[in-house]
Amino acid sequence: MKKTIIILALLNLYLFSDTLQRDDSAQTVYDSKTSLIWQDSKDAQELRLTHQEALDYCTNLTLGDINTWRLPSLVELTSIVTPNKYNPSIDNIFQNTSRSGFYWTGDIVKGRSAAYYVRFDFGRDGSINMTSKNYVRCVK
């Protein structure tokens, strides 16, 4: 019985513990559940770029010792949306997030000059023309 309680407590801790860790000096957030490192510099809240500019920006970004950034996939970017949390719908550990506006993903809509985005006001996603200027949150 004691072993069962300990196992359940450890399982609960693993499943529901905070998996996000902030590195203020590097301006990044590490997600131990996905092993992804997220950009969280002021640029993530202020820069608005076309899709191509966003791709180039991530390719050329250096934060901390990391210089291998890219635009996240739709699945990756939605992984940091916090369910039932609104305005913003992202964990408070992210200090630089626009409360409105679209964040680019690297996923392109087949047959259209559009790419997918995620909004962090209500955690919704969709697609928009790649010449639109939207926010960028790079990932590694």
Q: Can you characterise this structure?
A:
The chain has 140 residues and is an alpha+beta fold. The protein has one domain. It is built from four helices and six strands, in the order αβββαααβββ. The chain has helices at 2-16, 43-46, 51-60, 74-78, and strands at 20-23, 28-31, 36-39, 102-108, 114-119, 125-129. The strands form two sheets. A three-stranded antiparallel sheet has the order 1-2-3, with no helix packed on it. The protein has a three-stranded antiparallel sheet with strand order 4-5-6. Strand 5 (114-119) and strand 6 (125-129) form a beta hairpin.
Q: What's the helical proportion of residues?
A: 10-25%
Total number of helical segments?
Answer: 4
Low-confidence stretches: 4-16
Order of helices and strands: HEEEHHHEEE
Main sheet makeup: 3 strands, antiparallel
Number of strands: 6
Number of domains: 1
First-residue to last-residue Cα separation: 43 Å
Question: How do the strands line up in the largest sheet?
Answer: 1-2-3
What class would the helix/strand composition place it in?
Answer: alpha+beta
- Note the beta-strand portion: 15-25%
The overall average pLDDT, rounded, is 90
Q: What is the general shape? A: globular
Radius of gyration: 17 Å
